[in-house]
Amino acid sequence: MSILEAIQNTGFADWMRVSEWGYPIILTLHSIGLAMVVGVLFVIDLRILGVPRSLPILPLRQLMTLVWLGFVLNLITGLCLFSADAVKFFESPTFRFKLASVFAGVGLAVFLSSSVLGVGDKFDRREAVIPARAKVFASLSLLMWLAAICLGRYVAYE
Ligand code: HEM
Fold first, then answer.
1. How many helices and strands (H and E) does the chain possess?
2. Distance 65 CA to ligand 1 centre (A)
3. 156 in ligand 1 pocket by Cβ < 6 Å?
4. d(CA 20, CA 12)
C-alpha cells in the first residue's frame, strides 16, 4: 500500500468522507483562511502598485500576522481535505498547479514583506518611488493568488 493510500485509509480520512459535517466544516475553515491570506495580500499588492498612493505602507506590516495565521489555518485544513481523497488529489495536475501557485504566492509575500514593508517608513509617503522589481513581484503575487483560488475551486469538478 502506498503512503497516499495509507493516508486515505486512516480513521480521520474515513470520518472526513462519511461524516455529514466533517468535509463542509473543514472546507468552510479553509475558505476563512483563504480570505485572511488573500484579503490582506491583495490590499498590500495593490498599494505596492500605487492603488491607493495615499495609504501609508508601514501599518500594513502589522496585518502580516493575520496572513501567517490564515496560511497556517489553510495548511492544516488543506491537509485534512487532502487526506479524504489523497490519491486523486495527488494525481491531479490542477491540484499540483494550485499548490505551486500557493507556495509561489507565499515566497512573493515573504520577499515583499521584507523588502517593502520591512524597511521602516521609506515608502510611506505618496511621492515615494517603489522599485519596479517590487511592482513586478506584486503583480505576480496577485496572479498567483487568483490562480490558487480558481484552480482550488476547479479541483472540485474533476
Ligand atoms: C492560502 C492558501 C490556499 C488557498 C488560497 C486555497 C484555495 C482553495 C480553494 C478556493 C478551494 C476550493 C474551495 C471550494 O471548493 O469551495 C480549495 C480547496 C482545497 N484545498 Fe486549498 N487553498 C490553499 C491552501 C491549501 C493547501 C496548503 C492545501 C494542501 C496541503 C490545500 C488543499 C486543498 C484541498 C484538498 C481542497 C479540496 C478540493 C475539493 O474538495 O475538491 N489548500 N483551496
1. 7, 0
2. 20
3. yes
4. 14
* CB-CB neighbours of 126 under 10 Å: 11
CB 17 within 8 A of CB 81: no
Predicted TM-score of the model (pTM): 0.94
What ligand 1 atom has the least distance to the C-alpha of 37? 1
Distance from the alpha carbon of residue 63 to the mean position of ligand 1, in angstroms: 22
Count of beta carbons in the 10 Å neighbourhood of residue 17: 13
Taking the centre of ligand 1 as the mean of its atom positions, its distance from the CA of residue 30, in whole angstroms, is 7
**CA neighbor of 77 nearest in space, from 126, 125, 35, 109:** 35
Q: How does pLDDT run across 56-112, given as a tens digit for each residue?
A: 999 999 999 999 999 999 999 999 999 999 999 999 999 999 999 999 999 999 999
| Spatial separation of the C-alpha atoms in residues 77 and 151, rounded to whole Å | 17
Q: Hunting for cell 475551486 — which residue is that?
A: 153
3-state secondary structure of 31: helix
CA distance 71 to 68: 5
Q: Which of 72, 81, 96, 108 to mutate to test the pocket of ligand 1 (most atoms within 8 A of CB)?
A: 81
Q: Which of 24, 16, 150, 33 is nearest to 86 (CA)?
A: 16
